[in-house]
Amino acid sequence: MDAGAWSCGMVAGLIHDIPSCKELVDRIMGEAEQIIRSRLIGFLDGTGATRKVA
């Protein structure tokens, strides 16, 4: 790694942390649950509208 050439683009600037596999899956599951729950509220309150998740 120290003597080799590395190729990376602008996306490298978007990496803020390197989570473990467990942390990554937990984040994905948490975000998915939040999105599903927010959309389900619209169906349950009778409006049928989805709500934006922050």
Helix content: 40-55%
| Order of helix and strand elements from N to C terminus | H
The helix count comes to 1
Spans of 5+ residues with little confidence (pLDDT < 50)? none
The strand count comes to 0
Q: Residue-averaged pLDDT, rounded? A: 81
How would you sum up the global shape? Answer: elongated
Radius of gyration, Cα only, in angstroms? 19 Å
Oligomer: single chain
Sheet/helix structural class: mainly alpha
Q: Distance between the terminal alpha carbons, to the nearest Å? A: 39 Å
Query: Proportion of β residues?
Result: under 5%
Give the biggest sheet. Answer: none
Describe the fold and architecture.
The protein is mainly α and 54 residues long. It has a domain at 18-54. Helix content is 44%, strand content 0%. The protein contains 1 helix and no strands. The longest helix is centred in the middle third of the chain and has 24 residues, at 21-44. The relative contact order is 0.09. The model has no long low-confidence stretch (mean pLDDT 81).
Question: In brief, what are we looking at here?
Answer:
The chain has one helix and no strands. With 54 residues, it is mostly helical.
Write the layout of secondary structure elements.
Elements: H1 21-44
Search tags:
54 residues, mainly alpha, 1 helix, 44% helix
